[in-house]
Structure to design on (783 residues):
């Protein structure tokens, strides 16, 4: 049997502090020209997919748009359709939520991307558990966390019905036929489940890969179950080796309960990659990066989210705010907050105060100490290639979704320095041998 | 004058797929879209429109398939340079917020050549959305979309390294739109499009404010649209041109397969006759949107025999520039909201 292969995607979030916008070497990453340059570099590096995140409300800090992070991005499906017209191999994956979309509309847009790209489309299914985002949409903040996965399941099942509504030979082979489509070869789809309501005669056939590849991102039990039932790929947050192994074990167990083989799902955790010519250089870059990402201004903003108060008068290099935090909930306007972090705010602040006191930390120092670390691989190309080989050979993951911190530098470094090491180890393709995303990912045919 | 062309499927005649010379399934191929747009651009059309609906274009013996229109337009964004790209999007079957982001993104991807053909919805189209509605009035959706396009000021992104600010928060605005059945907070996720406001096209019957009002090719309709405040008024005109057979014989052949029953004005005849008709129309209309019966036959005929002899406005860098429309001021400039 051939060796297991590593699959790579790039995750373009378009928001957040991991991207160092201040670096003068960066391209204008939200423009079509910048994005196309990245897509072509990914094709040069034989990547599986170019993957767009979704955030449907511009992040805020206490009622004003957050100034410190990159913001502003295109509609993912529109931008990916533009890329489809200018690329030939790269998979094109859009994160799209099932709460603030209409199922028939989204299924058709995804199908369109799949046909325009001749079988390279993917859909990262998320639920966007955030009523604050809902303020931009007709149904506002409907659906609590558990019901969102019920809607997601019903939504995906409706989408799958839409994608399989055309018989493969529905369209007449020549224009002398009595009908453009053979009567009875296109089925109307009607769904009236408790959270999805639609009646539609779909307008599109299956693509070269059948239908868009389904990704799922969301780590709660509800999210994992949705993945086990319907996803082809999971985009997981479990990157560290032990967590990755535990996650793979859990998700494969869930797969089995739905009668699916372990081989029918790819596991691609998110990761950042920091390369150096030596281990010391890589570590130095990682430290530089953390300081670029957690600037003094961002440290104040981070605490403001917890305090729920204006802290702009405090010196980031001075002691923690002497005022008491607001008792209310954590401000959701800085992005999705995991279920675990939604309660216990005041306890967390108390432990921070103790830590700052014990270690004599400033606001900036505290935030550098407590802010969650990016899930990063830091080292020489050889070191990371060896690490990834171990991940792959033990089937802990099938690959990674890389979040760049510089563009194009993160990508060009990986393509020029890391990919050749992976190829030498026999775990990465040396040319594209397929054209569809499904085939790039070695997924079983539908 | 200005000329627009509708590039749906195999052409405007429902039986066009029988006369296209290509396989029936070719209407769903990306290369078909790309070739038609390339020819329209080469021929000098100001803009191409892409008809759409969430349900099939025909319920009878004719074409039942269609790629979604924003996707088709975006697909050709990087392979065209001058032509405006105008997908049809319904105000009822897409979220206003998504719609605004889609057209804004098309405008960014084309460096300022995007437009939106506003569409209402039939009961069958509304059924695709079910209880995810209620849809809201078309005019309200247009108003919400327009406000979202202004929600970022042009110079909102400042990348000011010393203060650590990527953007100036005073220049990105909540819109707080309140319609009768829906609200939108804003701002849009997409920065202001290059044209500021992408061009809006709408039929006069929809009764929404538009940059280009599409009307039946009758002077009284043009006058009524202007009286209602329309800026540019385009006539809708179906065309069947002489080709391998006289136009009337071609039309008869097509109509034998499926009668072409529309309420639009139709021209059937020679290229010279069409040139004369367009000259007449230019007295009352700023432009004409042509609906070629069979794209593979009538579009090349238009490009070869009609457009070269017309007095068309030259195209500018953006669609607004091509149409002589200024970039609108941003309603939120100076606002602290
Ligand atoms: C790796 C990863 C990436 C995600 N990317 C997005 C995203 O781009 N947009 C979004 O709205 N949600 C994103 N999510 C959020 C989830 O899809 C989900 O909506 C949220 O986590 C709540 O579900 P959960 O409780 O199952 O995690 C992501 C989650 C994970 C784990």
């Amino acid at each position: 049997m051939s060796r297991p292969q590593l699959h790579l995607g790039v995750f373009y979030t378009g928001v957040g502090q991991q991207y160092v916008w201040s670096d003068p070497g960066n391209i204008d990453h939200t423009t079509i020209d910048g994005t196309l340059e990245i897509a072509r570099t990914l094709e040069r590096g034989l990547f599986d997919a170019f993957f767009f995140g979704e955030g449907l409300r511009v992040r805020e800090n206490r009622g004003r748009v957050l100034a410190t992070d990159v913001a502003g991005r295109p509609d993912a499906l529109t931008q990916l359709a533009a890329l489809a017209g200018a690329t030939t191999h790269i998979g094109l994956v859009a994160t799209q939520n099932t709460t603030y979309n209409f199922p028939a509309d989204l299924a058709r847009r995804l199908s369109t991307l799949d046909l325009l790209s001749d079988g390279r489309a993917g859909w990262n299914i998320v639920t966007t558990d955030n009523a604050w985002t809902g303020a931009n949409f007709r149904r506002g903040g409907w659906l609590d966390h558990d019901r969102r996965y019920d809607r997601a399941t019903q939504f995906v099942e409706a989408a799958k019905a839409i994608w399989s509504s055309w018989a493969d030979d529905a369209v007449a082979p020549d224009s002398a036929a009595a009908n453009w489509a053979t009567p009875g070869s296109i089925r109307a789809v009607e769904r009236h489940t408790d959270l999805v309501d639609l009646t539609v005669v779909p307008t599109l056939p299956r693509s070269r890969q059948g239908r868009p590849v389904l990704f799922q991102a969301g780590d709660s039990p509800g999210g994992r179950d949705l993945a086990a039932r319907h996803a082809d790929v999971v985009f997981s947050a479990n990157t560290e080796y032990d967590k990755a192994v535990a996650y793979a074990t859990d998700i494969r167990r869930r797969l089995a309960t739905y009668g699916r083989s372990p081989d029918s799902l790819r596991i691609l955790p998110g990761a950042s990659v920091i390369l150096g010519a030596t281990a010391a250089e890589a570590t130095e870059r990682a430290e530089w990066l953390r300081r670029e990402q957690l600037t003094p201004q961002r440290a104040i903003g981070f605490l403001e989210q917890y305090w729920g108060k204006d802290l702009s008068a405090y010196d980031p290099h001075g002691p923690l705010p002497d005022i008491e935090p607001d008792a209310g909930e954590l401000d959701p306007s800085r992005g999705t907050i995991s279920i675990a972090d939604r309660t216990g705010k005041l306890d967390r602040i108390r432990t921070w105060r103790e830590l700052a006191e014990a270690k004599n930390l400033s606001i900036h120092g505290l935030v550098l100490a407590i802010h969650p670390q990016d899930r990063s691989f830091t080292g020489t190309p050889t070191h990371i290639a060896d690490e990834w080989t171990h991940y792959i050979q033990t089937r802990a993951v099938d690959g990674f979704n890389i979040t760049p911190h510089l563009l194009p530098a993160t990508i060009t470094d990986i393509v020029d320095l890391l990919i050749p090491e992976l190829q030498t180890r026999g775990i990465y393709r040396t040319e594209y041998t397929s054209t569809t995303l499904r085939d790039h990912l070695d997924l079983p045919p539908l | 004058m200005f000329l627009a062309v509708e590039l749906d499927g195999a052409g405007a005649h429902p039986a066009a797929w029988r006369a296209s010379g290509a396989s029936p399934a070719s209407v769903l191929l990306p290369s078909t879209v790309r070739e038609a747009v390339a020819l329209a651009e080469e021929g000098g059309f100001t803009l191409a429109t892409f008809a759409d609906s969430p349900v099939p274009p025909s319920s009878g013996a004719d074409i039942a398939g269609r790629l979604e229109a924003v996707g088709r337009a975006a697909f050709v964004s990087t392979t065209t340079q001058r032509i405006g790209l105008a997908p049809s999007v319904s105000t009822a079957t897409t979220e206003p917020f998504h719609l605004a982001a889609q057209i804004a993104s098309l405008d960014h991807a084309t460096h300022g050549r995007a437009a939106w053909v506003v569409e209402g919805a039939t009961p069958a189209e509304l059924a695709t959305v079910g209880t995810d509605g209620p849809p809201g009035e078309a005019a309200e959706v247009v108003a919400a979309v327009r406000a979202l396009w202004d929600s970022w000021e042009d110079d909102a992104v400042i990348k000011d390294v010393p203060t650590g600010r990527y953007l100036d928060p005073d220049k990105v605005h909540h819109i707080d739109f309140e319609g009768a059945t829906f609200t939108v907070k804003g701002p849009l996720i997409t920065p202001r499009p290059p044209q500021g406001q992408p061009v809006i096209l709408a039929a006069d019957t929809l009764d929404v404010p538009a940059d280009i009002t599409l009307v039946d090719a009758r002077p009284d309709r043009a006058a009524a649209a202007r009286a209602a405040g329309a800026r540019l008024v385009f006539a809708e005109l179906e065309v069947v041109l002489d080709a391998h057979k006289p136009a009337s014989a071609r039309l008869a052949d097509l109509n034998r397969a499926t009668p072409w029953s529309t309420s639009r004005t139709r021209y059937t005849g020679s290229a010279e006759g069409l040139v004369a008709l367009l000259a007449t129309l230019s007295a009352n209309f700023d432009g004409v949107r042509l609906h070629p019966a069979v794209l593979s036959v009538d579009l090349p005929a238009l490009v070869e025999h009609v457009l070269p002899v017309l007095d068309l406005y030259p195209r500018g860098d953006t669609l607004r520039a091509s149409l002589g429309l200024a970039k609108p001021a941003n309603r939120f400039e100076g606002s602290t909201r």
Q: What stands out?
A: Chain B touches chain A through 82 residues (CB under 8 Å). Residues 2-118+193-322 of chain B form a domain with the TIM Barrel fold (CATH 3.20.20.30). The longest strand of chain B covers residues 232-241. Chain B has one domain: 2-118+193-322.
